[in-house]
Write a structure and sequence with these properties.
Layout lengths: L8 H11 L7 E4 L3 H17 L4 E4 L2 H9 L7 H4 L2 E6 L3 E2 L5 E2 L6 H8 L2 E9 L12 E5 L4 H14 L7 E3 L1 E2 L2 E2 L7 E5 L7 H9 L4 E4 L1 E2 L5 E5 L5 E3 L1
Parallel strand pairs: 1-2, 1-3, 3-6, 6-14
Antiparallel strand pairs: 4-5, 5-13, 7-11, 7-12, 8-11, 9-10, 14-15
This protein binds ribulose-5-phosphate.
The site of ribulose-5-phosphate (5RP) has 18 residues, from helix 2 and helix 5.
Amino acid sequence: MSQSSPVDPAKDAAARAAVALVQNGMKLGLGTGSTANIFVDRLAERVHAEGMDLICASTSKATAEQARGLGLVVEDLNDIGWLDLTIDGADEVDPDLNLIKGGGAAHLREKIVATASDRMVVVADQGKVVDRLGAFKLPVEVIAFGWKTTRRQIERALERLELADRPVILREKDGQPVITDEGNLILDLDLGQIPDAPQLARALSAIAGVVEHGLFLDICNLAIIGRADGSVVEL
Ligand code: 5RP
């Protein structure tokens, strides 16, 4: 195990169930975050126990380091080309399998990897399931150049969508801006509720300076939701 803290039983249950979906010879996308980390741990256990041959693409430097440290083969997505399956966590999952991702600032690579896969499966605990997206602050990755102007453009777009005065917050850690694996910044949109996610996604994608937003619409094929008692449900 690569975690030093105790493993959350709900996340562990979802991760174990997802490992069962992996078949020998697959090209596999590895997600980012605490649940994806547990999945990678469990996957490595199975790969070594069964002598499986897998090629993995990672959604972050952190997961690539974890996976390689556990003896998994991680290659550049450019060299792999296309993936059979990606397993990743999520910050919110709605009943239509639309997601908010990016709590770990990795949603740009996560979306590239997920959309280069035949199937994307989310692993999450029950707390991530929502009726409607938006309580989790929506991450938007933006270019550092002119980011305050980009933030103003985002605020204007929100005004047009009747989401005026919602805070758009530069993500910081230890008093410093968070820098993504691609060298960009994250703006977190505190929306409370998203009335029309496709409309918001289109509006954000149209703004110069926005690299990618954390709305994953019509990308996820299955969500495996773990519960504290170790059971799982599928959405
Ligand atoms: C990273 C992500 C993660 O998948 C998401 O934040 C969920 O993380 P965790 O499993 O730690 O709750 O989108 O960008």
